[in-house]
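haha ok so turns out i had the wrong file open the whole time. this is the CORRECT one, sorry everyone. sequence first:
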Amino acid sequence: MAKKCVILSFGFDSSIVLTAYSKYNLESGDCIAFVIPNEKNARAESAIKSVESFLSNLKSRGVDINLKILEVDANNIEKIILKISDFILQNDYVYYLEATGGIRSICVALTVSAILLKPKIASFSTINEANGNIINVSLPYFNLVISGAKKEILNLLLSKGNATTKTIATSIHKDISTVSRHLSELEESFIVEKDSKYDADYKLTYVGYIVAKKV
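then structure:
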């Protein structure tokens, strides 16, 4: 049976770990992951120590739950999404995501990550801040089927970072008009975009990066 991982937007309330432990019936080998700002904060550090103490007590009773800390730049939502997505794609868990506390930009990033990686997400929930009620959200699923030449384009951009239409056409052995058409379609889907540093180059968007890692 697959192990579970609860990913939480963590603020200062360490009690959410006890709630998650009970709510998801966590067992040895399961995981709790916090997404937190990479800026130092005494209250957050104190809360994490309380969590570590709680998990240490559980371990002494035979329940060994892993704790992962994902430190992010709270001012860059795209990078937060990539950090969360990389964690999800690189680990083999059933995932439960909760955007119920902490920084709002992290909550937004968790929401977008849950949508983009829907097949790997067992549930997603947020909170009604007016009354504290937890709301379970049914996620939409956008099945981005990428195959053939488009898949080759994504793999190339994933490995190279950016490339011109001509370079892509030469690398995947397709004519420039075909590659241009594919790039236009991928750009409309926000999977690739023009590189702001090199106007003739294309690069993956954060959505394209996730799609490329999945295909």
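Helices lie at 15-23, 42-60, 77-90, 104-116, 148-160, 165-172, 176-188, 206-214.
again sry for the mixup
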